[in-house]
UniProtKB/TrEMBL annotation:
<dbReference type="InterPro" id="IPR051064">
    <property type="entry name" value="SEC14/CRAL-TRIO_domain"/>
</dbReference>
<dbReference type="GO" id="GO:0005737">
    <property type="term" value="C:cytoplasm"/>
</dbReference>
<dbReference type="InterPro" id="IPR036273">
    <property type="entry name" value="CRAL/TRIO_N_dom_sf"/>
</dbReference>
<dbReference type="InterPro" id="IPR001251">
    <property type="entry name" value="CRAL-TRIO_dom"/>
</dbReference>
<feature type="domain" description="GOLD">
    <location>
        <begin position="310"/>
        <end position="481"/>
    </location>
</feature>
<dbReference type="InterPro" id="IPR036865">
    <property type="entry name" value="CRAL-TRIO_dom_sf"/>
</dbReference>
<feature type="domain" description="CRAL-TRIO">
    <location>
        <begin position="88"/>
        <end position="264"/>
    </location>
</feature>
<dbReference type="InterPro" id="IPR009038">
    <property type="entry name" value="GOLD_dom"/>
</dbReference>
<dbReference type="InterPro" id="IPR036598">
    <property type="entry name" value="GOLD_dom_sf"/>
</dbReference>
<dbReference type="Pfam" id="PF03765">
    <property type="entry name" value="CRAL_TRIO_N"/>
</dbReference>
<dbReference type="Pfam" id="PF00650">
    <property type="entry name" value="CRAL_TRIO"/>
</dbReference>
<protein>
    <recommendedName>
        <fullName>Protein real-time</fullName>
    </recommendedName>
</protein>
<dbReference type="InterPro" id="IPR011074">
    <property type="entry name" value="CRAL/TRIO_N_dom"/>
</dbReference>
Length: 481
C-alpha cells in the first residue's frame, strides 16, 4: 500500500511496519518529509526510515544525520548496484564459511557463519580487505531483499534477520592483528549503514578463547545490538534454552547435530508461517584453509602509517644448512601468553619452544617482557644458544613445545601460556637442505599481558602439543595454507 507523506494507514502500519506509538508514527512522518526535501522527492522506504529512527531512539535530528551520511555513502560507493553487479570470487565460493540458511521461528531470514573455520588471513591475502568488505555488503543487501520478501509473504512485518555463528575451531589464528583490524572496520561500516537489521545473534560452541576476541570487538558494536547476543559454550546449545527455542528443529544444521544438510546446494521451501511460499537455496560452505596458490599479489596491503603494517611487524630470516635462528623472550608476567605466526618460504624448518629459569638477556627493567634475536651464524654451527653454553635439556632448560617440522609453503600460528617467569626461546632450525639456496621464513611474535586474559587460558593451548590449529581435520600438528 502506498501512503502519502502526511499520514499512515493503520492497517499499513500493522501489516508492514509493526506496532508504532502515535509519537513514533509522527516522527516517522517528520523524518520522511525532511529526507524528501533533502533528496528532492526520492525517499527510502518507511522500513528503512524506521531502522534509522530506532537506532537513534526516535530522535529525528540524530536519525536524519545518520541516514543522510548513509545515503551519501551508498551513492559514493555505488552500493545500490552491488546485487546486480557483484561477482562472487572463486575463493569465496570455495572457502568462505557462511550463507543464508532457511529462517528462525520468528520468520527472520537466518544467516549461518562458521567463523571458527574461516581462514581470515587467507581470505585477506586472496581478495583483500576491500574484497571482504564488498562480500559483507553483498550479504547485507541480500538480507534487505529477503526481509522485503519475508514481509510480503507472511502475516506480519519482518524487519530483521537472525545470525547463527559457530565458533568451533576459533583460536589465536583469528586474533591476527591485521585480520582483527579488518573485522573492526567492517563492523563500523555495517553498524553505520545497516542499523537495526540484526534481530538476534546466536553464538554457539564458544571456546574459552572467545572472550579475548569479544573484548576487542564488542566496544565497536552498538549497545542495543550487543543486547541481542546469546552465547553458548560446549554443547549446551542443544539443551533447553538453546537453539531449539529459536530455530525450527528441521533447520538445525547437520554440523551442529541437526538434521538439515548445509554442505550441498539444495532447494527448499521457506515456510515460517503457513502463507510463506517462496523457494530459496541453502548452502553454508565448511570453510578451511585457503591455498597459497589463490593468494593475489597486492590483494592485502596495509595503509600508510598503520602500525599493523606487515613490513613493520614481520621479520625475514635466511638459514643455511644446520643454522639456527632463535628469539629470546624474557617473561616477568606469569600467565601471560606468547603467540607466534610464521610462514616457511623455502625448504623445511624445525620449530620448537624452550624455557629456562635463567635470564638469557637482561632487558630494560621497565619491560614486562623483551626479546632479542640471535642468528645461527653467530654461534657454533648446528648448536643453539642453550647448547653453546653447555646446558643440558631437562636439567638447565626444558622443552615446552615439542619439535614440529614445518614444510615449505606452510603457515603456522600458535600460542603458549607462559605460566612461569624466566626466559622462553623460540627456535627455528634448518636441519635438512639439499639445495645450495638457503631456507627462508618470515615470522612475528607477540606477548599478551596476563591481566587481559584471565579465565581464558585453557583454550589457548592444545591438549597435546600447544599449537593452535584452525581445524582438527588437518593432517599435521598445525595447519598449512
Amino acid at each position: 500500500m502506498i501512503t502519502d507523506q502526511y499520514s499512515l494507514d493503520s492497517e499499513y502500519i500493522k501489516r508492514y511496519l509493526g506496532e508504532l506509538t502515535p509519537i513514533q508514527e509522527s516522527r516517522l512522518l517528520q523524518l520522511r518529509k525532511w529526507i524528501a526535501d533533502l533528496q528532492k522527492g526520492k525517499v527510502p522506504s518507511d522500513t528503512t526510515l524506521l531502522r534509522f529512527l530506532r537506532a537513534r531512539d526516535f530522535n529525528v535530528e540524530k536519525a536524519r544525520e545518520m541516514l543522510s551520511q548513509s545515503l551519501l555513502w551508498r551513492k559514493k560507493h555505488q552500493v545500490d548496484k552491488i546485487l546486480s553487479e557483484y561477482e562472487t570470487p572463486d575463493v569465496v565460493k570455495q572457502y568462505f564459511p557462511g550463507g543464508w540458511h532457511h529462517h528462525d521461528k520468528d520468520g527472520r531470514p537466518l544467516y549461518v557463519l562458521r567463523l571458527g573455520q574461516m581462514d581470515v588471513k587467507g581470505l585477506l591475502k586472496s581478495i583483500g580487505e576491500d574484497g571482504l568488505l564488498k562480500l559483507t555488503l553483498h550479504v547485507c543487501e541480500e538480507g534487505l531483499k529477503l526481509l522485503e520478501e519475508a514481509t510480503r509473504s507472511s502475516e506480519h512485518a519482518v524487519h530483521s534477520w537472525c545470525l547463527l555463528v559457530d565458533l568451533d575451531g576459533l583460536n589465536m589464528r583469528h586474533l591476527w592483528r591485521p585480520g582483527v583490524r579488518a573485522l573492526l572496520r567492517i563492523i563500523q561500516i555495517v553498524e553505520a549503514n545497516y542499523p537495526e537489521t540484526m534481530g538476534r545473534v546466536l553464538i554457539v560452541r564458544a571456546p574459552r578463547v572467545f572472550p579475548i576476541l569479544w573484548t576487542i570487538v564488542s566496544t565497536f558494536i552498538d549497545e542495543n545490538t550487543r543486547s541481542k547476543f546469546l552465547f553458548y559454550g560446549g554443547k549446551d546449545y542443544l539443551q533447553a534454552g538453546g537453539l531449539l527455542d529459536y530455530i525450527p528443529k528441521e533447520y538445525i544444521p547437520d554440523f551442529l547435530g541437526g538434521p538439515c544438510k548445509s554442505d550441498i546446494v539444495e532447494t527448499s521451501l521457506f515456510v515460517p508461517h503457513r502463507f510463506y511460499k517462496y523457494v530459496r537455496h541453502s548452502f553454508v560452505h565448511e570453510g578451511g584453509l585457503v591455498p597459497k596458490s589463490l593468494y593475489a599479489s597486492g590483494a592485502f596491503t596495509e595503509r600508510d602509517g598503520d602500525p599493523l603494517s606487515e613490513d613493520s611487524i614481520y621479520r625475514s630470516v635466511s638459514l643455511a644448512k644446520g643454522q639456527v635462528h632463535e628469539m629470546i623472550v624474557v617473561n616477568r608476567d606469569p600467565q601471560s601468553v606468547l603467540t607466534w605466526d610464521f610462514d616457511v618460504l623455502r625448504h623445511d624448518i624445525s620449530f620448537t619452544v624452550f624455557r629456562t629459569d635463567c635470564e638469557l638477556e637482561q632487558p630494560d627493567q621497565t619491560d614486562h617482557a623483551a626479546a632479542v634475536c640471535v642468528g645461527g651464524a653467530a654461534i657454533e654451527e648446528g648448536k643453539s644458544l642453550l647448547e653453546a653454553r653447555g646446558w643440558r635439556e631437562g636439567e638447565h632448560y626444558h622443552r615446552v613445545e615439542p619439535a614440529l617440522i614445518c614444510h615449505d609453503g606452510e603457515s603456522i600460528q600458535g600460542s603458549h601460556v607462559m605460566s612461569e617467569s624466566g626466559s622462553y626461546l623460540l627456535q627455528w632450525r634448518c636441519e635438512l637442505l639439499d639445495s645450495s639456496r638457503a631456507a627462508q621464513l618470515m615470522y612475528f611474535h607477540e606477548i599478551l599481558a596476563s591481566h587481559h586474559y584471565k579465565g581464558s587460558m585453557s583454550s589457548l593451548q592444545s591438549a597435546t602439543s600447544g599449537f593452535s590449529c584452525l581445524s582438527n581435520k588437518s593432517g599435521s600438528s598445525c595447519p598449512s595454507r
